[in-house]
Design goal:
single chain, 336 residues, mainly alpha, 0% strand
């Protein structure tokens, strides 16, 4: 059977596409009144073996989702009883959540990734409640930095993406909030934010490099933690570049952010990970089109229709070229 189901005793039947074989076979069995034995024989024509290593891949994912729901449930439980419970009760519940999660991470190796994720969530909730209860005057970036720093030993002990992947979001938020705090507490890309954004971009690149596969034997993070850090970093750098487009002195900051994305794309082209390469290529497309749009529509005539048509042509050309390059890299052995 190469793409179509052979006709079974009834020439009027429409061939069934390969993707719909099982429902189609059930329909054939009902239509022709096949008994259970013949129905099983008909269904045996379809290779219905489960994907390899399905249980050992599915169980950690289900446990991680369960840990996420438990952690969020405890946070929502406290929020729902905010006025009724005292400070000691809230602190005690959050501390018990962190302590029991860490104890379970040590004592139950099979549940270590899920309990490590639960401990990470408990740490964040505890820091958030501490900051809400005792107004220390600390900036938000300091709390996120402390959370990320204290979670590093947890990630090194668990050595699983269930901890490292959400940790990347915490670390990225710490960098973004640091840049915002050192840019006059403004979300902008201008002369005042150029230096903080440069250091922030280098920090994001450093985080992605530290979590890359070449250092896996030290930290134990897997491919998805590295990909998550790369996606957050590319998204943040692209966002800074887009904000620069709408500022007055935009050119220098916009172009060095683009050069950083281009350097990342060049490095990823050699490495061959298509997920990271595709996200960086998309960011480069957005960056290039934003700069071209700023140049095209910034006082260059009043032919808006022609300019919009030209912008659409350039966007389509960039997209087609990017897809062509990615497909070629995939054929050359890129990892999906």
């Amino acid at each position: 059977m190469a793409g179509r189901l052979p006709r079974i005793g009834a020439p009027h039947l429409t061939p069934i596409p390969m993707t719909d074989w099982r429902p189609g076979l059930h329909a054939l069995a009902v239509e022709h009144g096949l008994d259970p034995r013949r129905t099983r024989a008909l269904l045996a024509l379809v290779d219905d073996t489960p994907p390899p290593r399905l249980p050992e891949r599915l169980l950690p994912a289900v446990l991680a989702v369960g840990a996420l729901l438990v952690g969020l449930g405890v946070v929502m439980w406290i929020a729902a009883n905010w006025a009724d419970w005292g400070r000691v009760t809230k602190f005690g519940l959050l501390q018990a959540l962190v302590a029991t999660s860490l104890l379970g991470t040590w004592a139950l190796p099979r549940l270590r990734p899920a309990l490590g994720l639960l401990a990470l969530l408990g740490q964040g909730a505890l820091f958030a409640y501490f900051g809400q209860t005792y107004q220390t005057g600390a900036d938000p970036w300091q709390l996120f930095t402390l959370w990320a720093a204290l979670a590093v030993p947890l990630g090194l002990a668990v050595r699983h993406d269930a901890v490292w992947a959400p940790w990347t979001l915490v670390a990225t938020l710490a960098v973004v909030l640091w840049v915002q705090a050192h840019s006059g507490h403004r979300w902008a890309s201008d002369a005042d934010s150029a230096t903080p954004q440069l250091w922030g971009a280098l920090a994001l690149v450093g985080l992605a490099t530290a979590l890359s596969p070449w250092a896996q034997r030290w930290h134990g993070a897997g491919l998805w933690a590295w990909r998550a850090q790369g996606v957050w970093g590319v998204g943040v750098i692209t966002g800074w570049a887009l904000m620069a487009v709408f500022s007055t002195d935009w050119a220098a900051q916009f172009f060095w952010l683009g050069l950083l994305l281009l350097a990342a794309a060049a490095a990823l082209w050699r490495q061959g990970d298509l997920v990271m390469l595709s996200s960086t290529a998309m960011a480069l497309n957005v960056w290039a089109l934003a700069g071209f749009g700023r140049w095209l529509f910034d006082g260059n005539g009043r032919d808006w229709l022609g300019q919009a048509f030209l912008f659409g042509l350039v966007a389509a050309g960039l997209l087609a070229g990017t897809v062509s390059l990615l497909m070629r890299r995939h054929r050359d052995g890129g990892a999906a």
